[in-house]
Amino acid sequence: MKRLIIGLIFLMFTSALWAETKIIEVNGMVCAFCAQGIEASLKGLPATEDVYINLDKHIVAVDLKGIDSITNARLKELIVDAGYDVISINLSDHPVEHIRLMYEPS
């Protein structure tokens, strides 16, 4: 039983290390409707853990689950297909929740 618990803790810890957050700079998002469409597309992916969109900063932040990642090309394709321009896609050192708090402090 101890081995099972230790194994589960190890699995949870290591999968968190493999998770990644990408910040996508997007042109063309001007309203909440724009953000909702992109958010729905990204949240519908099995690899997506969380999504945050900031219209003022023109960014989309996406937390991707552990080993279930998605390529930058696929992220770009989804956003371009929704009618927007992708300027850049970068890895972040911070998860979406931290990014959300940076732009929307309580």
UniProtKB/TrEMBL annotation:
GO terms for molecular function: metal ion binding. Residues 20-87 form the HMA domain. InterPro entries: HMA_dom (IPR006121), HMA_dom_sf (IPR036163). Gene3D superfamilies: 3.30.70.100. It comes from the Bacteria. This is HMA domain-containing protein. The lineage of its organism: Bacteria, Pseudomonadati, Pseudomonadota, Betaproteobacteria, Nitrosomonadales.
